[in-house]
Structure formats: structure tokens, C-alpha cells
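LOG
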Amino acid sequence: MSSTEAPITPQVEADLAIAKRGCSELLVESEFTRKLARSHATGKPLRIKLGLDPTAPDIHLGHTVVLNKMRQLQDLGHTVIFLIGDFTSMIGDPSGRNATRPPLTAEQIHDNAKTYYAQASLVLDPAKTEIRYNSEWCDPLGARGLIQLASRYTVARMMERDDFTKRFKGGVPISVHEFLYPLLQGYDSVVLKADLELGGTDQKFNLLVGRELQKEYGQEPQCVLTMPLLEGVDGVDKMSKSKANYIGITESPESMFGKLMSISDTLMWKYFELLSFRSMDDILQLQKQVQEGMNPRDTKVALAQEIVARFHSQQAARDALSGFEARFRDGAIPDEMPEVQLGAAPLGILKVLREAGLVASGAEAQRNVEQGGVRVDGDRIEDKALQLPAGTYVVQVGKRKFARVTLTG
């Protein structure tokens, strides 16, 4: 350590551990440690950036993985910048895509952005959050500025992106405007003078472009912290509205509680690590108790109550638990059950029963409904013509046949 570097104190190490909890990657850890030490020594908070494009009007628990990390860093005293990508949304992020995504209109972006920050404020501390829109500096950039910015990054570097490489080799078109997305996201970091940028693992390339552009503009490069993509309630695909496996943070307490209770016992621990505000010591203690014989359902109830209370209230969490227990008290729901994914929602209940393997024929499905032996999420089904919309459901036939069925659109 040089004489000008701040010391790495136990408090710096503790803060680093909080930053790294649940993360996939921290680049470059030694650089971020020095930034933390300098912040402690000078009292100057780090500038921590998270950019979200308002491509949909609502935020789900998958989005809150990075928001939770921002809140943890915010509680350590650092400056959180919640950046709404109203300009870059008009381009469309090509990350992880195998085809060009249609850009949103200005009206769609405006409508979606209206609810974004209000919902994010359910996680972040609004009084300590700096909210920005990247149209502030991207609009004035103009054609001349955009050309000058583009001159600072090469096509060869851009083609290092896996999705661009795969599309190029597969003969799938890549529009020139898609190259502008990571370039402008990186320019956001230059304008905001970010010390750390967060994102999902699918954003790694874009975040690293910010590091390179900051160097080009003579700034200290930001560090990059990526968070895992959270699987949805089906335990298969990442949480997404298009996959109908999501839990929206503005859903009713009952819906939120029921969906959290439907996740598998294995996935529950990932939800604890990425969504719970409990300490890792507490979570490890819960794991030990389950290993020693405690019913994992009791642990899942604790998780569901914590999440519902955060986005609604403690009373709402208690009421959701009472309602859940009332629905299921007539029969014990197993902790593990077959996972089935079906398409073409909405789908008739009789067809759901057949395709989920819960009955052998349509006649058997019809007979079970008529006899009151079919339940969906604990509610007895009496309408043979019932159509289930996209979503995830615990479907029960009789006392012993269960399946967790996900219907996609």
C-alpha cells in the first residue's frame, strides 16, 4: 500500500462483505476495496449507479435483487443514483437477445416511467436517492457528439459480446443502432461520474463499456457488481412477465404470499439470500434448523411474511398467512411436487388436469370436478368450463395428486 492510500480497516472489510453478499462478480475487487477505504477516510460517499429501462410498467421481485443491493449500499452512507433510461429505451437493450427488439415509443416510455420510481421507492430510501433520466444528456449530445462518442470505441470490441457474435455467425441481422445502446449506457457513467455500477449478469458487457469510456474521458474507472438473475416461481426460467412466473411488488398480499409459498424448498434459499434483509448468519441458522428436522414450510412462511410486510404491512402479512392456512387446512400440501409448464393460456381446467398428468382422461377430469375433488391454489373448482389465465398454480386432484402448473401465454 502506498503512503497516499487509505488503510483497509475492519469496517471497510465489513462493508465489502455486505457489497459482495449474493453477488455473481465484483470487478475489480481490489479497486473497489480502495474506493471504500478512501470513502471512509475522507467521509465522501461513493456514487453508485443503477440504470433501468422502463420497458414495462411494473417492477417484480426479480428487479428488486439489484434494488436490494442498492439499498444495502445506501444504508452504508453512499449516494445511490437511480437512472431511468428513457433515451436508451428508444433503442432497446440487445443483451441476451437473438433478434432485434422493437424500440418503444416515447409515449410508452413515459407511461412506464411514471410508475417505476414510485415502485422502486418501496425498496430504496427516497430521501437518499438521486433520480436521473439519461435523456438529460443524450438528447443534447446531438449527431456531432454521438459521432465523437462512437470514435472512442471499436467495432472489434463491440463484437466481443456473445449475443452479437452468435447473431453475426448465425446470419441474424444486427442493426447499427444496437451498437449505440452499450455505448450510451457507458456514457451515462461518464456523465454521472459513477464509482460503481450494478446490474444483472446479462449486463456485464454494458457495464464494462462504462469502465472503458471513463478511462477515455480521463476518469477513474467505475467498478462493476453483477447480481444473479432470479428464477421465477417455476424454478426454471428467470423471473419475467412474459414467462408468467413473476411476483409483482404491487400484487395483493394474498397473491404475493401464495406465490412465495409455491416455490420449491431448494429455490427458497436463493430467494432468502437475494431478497431477504436477514443477515447471512440468520439464514445459515435457518438452514441448519431445517437440516435438523424443522419443516421447511415454516421457513418459507417466514420468507413470505417478510416480503409481504415489506411491500404492504405487517398486518397484511399476518392476514395473508391466515388466509393461506384457511385455504389449505383441509389437506396438507406437499413440499415437493411435479413441475409442469404448459402453453396456450388461457387453458381450460379439464385440459390442464389432463396435460399435467393428474388424470388419465377428459372424462376422469370432468368427474373429479363434478365431485368437488379439484382445487386450484386451495380453492375448490366447480366450473368445468373454467379457463385459467397465464400464471403459476398449485393444482390438486383428490387428497394425494398435486402439480405446480405454470401456464404461459
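LOG (cont.) second protein
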Amino acid sequence: MRISVALVIITAAHCTDSLTTGVDVYLGTHDRTNASEKGQQIVFVETKNVIVHENWIADTITNDISLIKLPVPIEFNEFIQPASLPEKSNSYETYTGESAIASGWGKISDSATAVTDILQYIDVPIMSNSGCSPWYLGLVAETNICIKTTGGTSTCNGDSGGPLVLKDGKNTLIGATSFGIAFGCEVGWPGVFTRITSYLDWIEEKSGLANYGN
């Protein structure tokens, strides 16, 4: 059975704060240059359906989150499936030490001159904020979540706003790619994401979506 539903995309504020007319959202895409790819859907979203966090501060990369409300129902298939929001709770896991998957069409190396056309993903461990923060001299807040990039495997330029999904069998979205280090993506500095659990109330307020568990 196929189910069509209205969806909300979670991304980074710095990806959407300067939109003028709107943005194309690619769903079920592997090769973003192949518009006839099986299962792929491309939806144009006007700026009126994009919600940038009202307290987004570019200088400190604070509250780097926005929502994109798709204007049409989306049909799920083997290539398009929703991620789950973390359950709303009085306290939340830090996810330190757990494995997650980050994905995007960003640069595949520091020597690359452009982003890639083929969707990439990496399986990475979550690190503690206390271990991540010293690398970035105070830019990492409790509203961020970091990944270890041992071996030079990391998110990179062009991956911004992409998902960090927990390997828990539920595809729980725990992060949206926010920032890294200007020295390069293969130098071993932690990758930094917006921590989704910090914004569950905001997401519910703006979209009506929340996960209260069973």
C-alpha cells in the first residue's frame, strides 16, 4: 500500500535565510542530475512555506534550523521514507557513543572543486559536546551535536542542512548539518550539527508535528 502525506523538511537556517523566490526539494534522489530517476520527486517550495528560526544568528551560528513545508502530498515508496522525530520527553539522550548516518551531496574531498552529483553517506560515532567544544572555541553549544571524524571521514561543504539519522531502526533524526572547520573536511576536526532534541517544542509550534511515543 502506498501512502501520500504532507511532509515537513528540517534543514539549516543558513541554507534558507537568503532565499528570494523559493527552493527545489529533491526527494528519493541518488543522482541529482537525473530528473527521470526511478522514485525521485522534485518539489518547488515558495519562500512563504519556509520557516527560518526567528532567533537565528549567523555570526555565532546559533539556532541554525529551519523548516520547509512541502505544498503538496508526497507518495512514499522504496526510495522515499520519513525520518522520525525524537520522542518528546522531560530529558533527552546525548547519544554520545552511538552510531549515526550523515548524508548529502557535498564535496567528497578537500581537493574537490565542486560538490558531487551522487548522494554520499557516512557511518559515524557521536561524540560528547565536552570533547567537541574545545575544537571550536565556544561555538559549540548545548543545542549542537558533534560527530567524530577519525580517518578524515566527515561532512563537508555542500552538505549543510543534511540529516544525521540515528541507527536505531526508527530512522530517528537527531541532527542537521551545521558547520565544520575552514581548514578542511579531512583534517579530523569534529563535524557539528544542530541538535534536533533542542528544538522539538519549536518544531511542534511551527509545524504541529511531534513524537509523543506510543
